[in-house]
Design goal:
Number of helices: 17
Radius of gyration: 24 Å
Shape: globular
Largest sheet: 4 strands, mixed
Number of strands: 7
Oligomer: single chain
Number of domains: 3
């Protein structure tokens, strides 16, 4: 080999060794340069949280990218606009969201404020929820698919519900039909990932729904591979160890009712073509169906709740594709036995839990959780909705969602599972 070849080899080996040292260092010091300030997660160094989003983050390396840039002198970030915050020229200054989406209008939003009183038992309640989750993840008496796998075994595409805010050290796993629209709005405000005329949004209610659910708005774990390559999984583990992780859950059967109502009782072109048409053909014996949802609704052709339940129980369903996120089990969306969540909120206690979480994150001075709507899908409706569902189907459905019931402390609906 020539001297040039030897020199290039030593440069490559030196770079690899340098990156290795950085990873070891990062494991040891964690996010010491971050202003992670939560009081209930792993120990974090004290820092200063800006009282407004306009203050400069001085001498703070707020991202792994910047940390690596500074040490190596080059960037692991992809070139181009992908790291820029998304600009959306939208109207600002409203005190309420623009409720131009039929789904939000139909659900019956209550935009009045609700006073939240902090209960001395809230911390105890959180500890109980986390303990139940950890106990059953470690308990061999509860068995369900994916329980025993490690975090490394989770495919990258299954990590797309974990939203990361590097500015405040927060990871949120969103569960559709559990106030995820408003929690995504909160994450956008905190991470400043969406701009309006060059200015980050400050009020979650100003962010239109269609931009909230745009996947390009959020940094999620499944995007790490494109940014960090082979180091992505390692960096995920670091952030899972150092950041505060939370999710919100809901009674599994009530969540199914809510998913059915919003996706099949309202005109939704995407869900009609992808799900309703096959259901109507398979379970309602319709051979010829309109091409559009408006025509179908006009002709009185709608998926029934029994059709939907039969679809969930049909073994052919998941042979074709995994459950849609709106009815996929929470344990498959958020991997609670592989990720040690610091906070488990519930839709049933949304106002109290949201207020408590924002206080514990020490961002309650920056924003407030949007006033909750009183969803018309109530737990008391379960008996009415399941009245026409055969007992055997109900029992099979419970088995399908049993892990969500048990892991998150929801009582077994005995009244629905016996004659």
């Amino acid at each position: 080999m020539t001297k040039t070849h030897y020199f290039r080899l030593w440069v490559v080996l030196g770079s690899v060794f340098t990156i290795f040292l950085i990873i070891v260092y990062w494991d040891n010091v964690g996010t010491a340069h971050f202003y992670l300030h939560t009081s209930f997660s792993r120990p974090h160094p004290p820092g200063v949280l800006p009282t407004t989003g306009q203050e400069e983050e001085k001498d703070v390396l707020s991202d792994v990218d910047e940390f690596l840039d500074k040490l190596l002198g080059f960037s692991l970030k992809p070139r181009g606009p992908s790291r820029k915050r998304i600009e959306q020229p939208l109207a600002r200054g409203s005190s309420k969201p623009v409720v131009d989406n039929m789904e939000e209008s139909v659900r019956g939003y209550d935009w009045s404020t609700h006073d939240t009183v902090r209960s001395p038992d809230q911390e105890k309640l959180q500890a109980e929820r986390r303990n139940v989750l950890r106990e059953f993840c470690a308990n061999s008496s509860l068995s369900f698919p994916t329980k025993e796998r490690s975090f490394d075994d989770i495919p990258n595409y299954e990590l797309n519900h974990l939203i990361v805010d590097d500015r405040h050290g927060i990871i949120y796993c969103y569960v559709p039909k559990v106030a995820c629209t408003n929690w995504k709005r909160v994450m956008i405000v905190l991470s400043e990932s969406l701009l309006d005329r060059g200015t980050p949004y400050r009020d979650p209610l100003d962010i239109p729904r269609e931009h909230v659910h745009n996947s390009s708005t959020h940094l999620t774990f499944n995007k790490f591979w494109r940014r960090y390559g082979k180091f992505s999984r390692h960096l995920m583990k670091i952030k899972l160890k150092k950041y505060t992780k939370f999710l919100f859950v809901r009674d599994p059967f009530v969540r199914l009712i809510s998913a059915f109502r919003s996706k099949f009782e309202l005109e939704n072109e995407e869900f009609y073509k992808k799900f309703a048409v096959p259901m109507l053909k398979l379970y309602s014996n319709h051979s010829s169906l309109p091409t559009s949802v408006s025509e179908a609704f006009g002709a009185g052709l709608k998926v029934s709740f029994p059709d939907f339940i039969q679809y969930l129980l049909d073994p052919r369903t998941e042979k074709l594709a995994p459950f849609n996120e709106h009815w996929r089990q929470v344990y498959r969306l958020c991997h609670p036995c592989q990720i040690d969540y610091d906070f488990v909120g519930k839709l049933e206690t949304l106002d109290e839990d949201a207020a408590q979480l924002l206080r514990l994150l020490k961002v309650d001075k920056l924003l407030h959780f949007p006033p909750s709507y009183r969803n018309r899908t109530a737990s008391s409706w379960e008996e009415d909705w399941f009245a026409k569902i055969p007992l055997f189907w109900r029992q099979q459905l419970y088995k399908l969602y049993e892990a969500d019931f048990v892991l998150f402390g929801y009582p077994k609906p005995e009244n629905l599972l016996r004659d």
